[in-house]
Amino acid sequence: MARTKLSKAAANSAITYSHDASERLLHNVNVLDKNVNAQFSGLSDPTYNRYLELSDQMQTMLKQVGDRMEAVATYCRSVIKWIDLYNQI
Q1: pLDDT band of 66, cuts 50, 70, 90
Q2: pTM, to two decimals
Q3: Taking the alpha carbons of 41, 44, 46, 52 in that order, is the dihedral positive or negative?
Q4: What CA–CA distance (Å, rounded) separates 7 from 14?
Q5: CA dist list (Å): 67 to 5, 18, 48, 77
Q6: Which 8-state DSSP code applies to residue 75?
Q7: Residue 69 CB neighbour total at 10 angstroms
Q8: 3-state percent breakdown (helix, strand, coil) of the chain, nearest 5
Q9: Residue 8 burial (CB < 10 Å; 0-12/13-18/19+)?
Q10: CA-to-CA distance for 39 and 42, rounded, in angstroms?
């Protein structure tokens, strides 16, 4: 039977990685939107309007990804608490 080793260091790393990835994701989306908006400012083209609609959908989906990353961090914090409790016994 396989055995999984849990460690506080691994859980803390997962928390750090999930926060970093979430921040980078949001930063990159903002840069993309800023660049596209700068290129097409003042344009009332239907294609650009469609891009704006899709951009809103993308941002909603990215928020969901960010929420899942936060759920990973929350789970890792619960693992750390469990490890601390287990080590006290």
Answers
A1: confident
A2: 0.70
A3: positive
A4: 11
A5: 26, 10, 28, 15
A6: H
A7: 20
A8: 85, 0, 15
A9: middle
A10: 9
CB 32 within 8 A of CB 62: no
State CA 72 to chain mean position distance: 10
Question: And the tokens for 11?
Answer: 């859980």
Q: Between the CA of residue 82 and those of 7, 68, 69, what are the distances in Å?
A: 10, 21, 20
| Tokens of residue 71, six digits | 């759920």
pLDDT tens, residue by residue, 11-42: 999 999 999 998 888 888 888 888 887 887 77
Cβ atoms < 10 Å from Cβ of 22? 20
